[in-house]
Amino acid sequence: MDFRRSKRKYTTITIPSALFSKVKERIEGTGFSSVSDYVTYILRETITDMEISKNKGRKADDVTVIERLKALGYINNDK
User: Fold this and answer.
1) 74 CB contacts (<8 Å, ≥6 apart)?
2) For a surface tag, which of 6, 15, 35, 51 has the fewest beta carbons within 10 Å of its beta carbon?
């Protein structure tokens, strides 16, 4: 999938306010203009890494992916 198309469609993803605040602090002084831009970048990187692993004939390391998503706040241990 090519993410760089000129006609982009968007949707809304809800994240916890505390996570939003952490991301907002993290991007201060970087080239990211918004939390949305940063989260989009992180998701693209994660998906690309998974696709590269798959294309090399290796299964993506599920534990590594889960730990990365936990670190980013997308998976909560409280559930």
Assistant:
1) 15
2) 6
Domain boundaries, the chain: 33-79
At 33-56, the pLDDT tens digits run 999 999 999 999 888 888 777 666
| DSSP SS3 for 42 | helix
The contacts of residue 16 (CB under 8 Å, 6+ apart) are 73
Distance between CA atoms of 3 and 37, rounded to whole angstroms? 13
Contact assessment for residue 53 and residue 59, using Cβ atoms and an 8 Å cutoff: yes
User: Tokens standing for 51?
Assistant: 């696709």
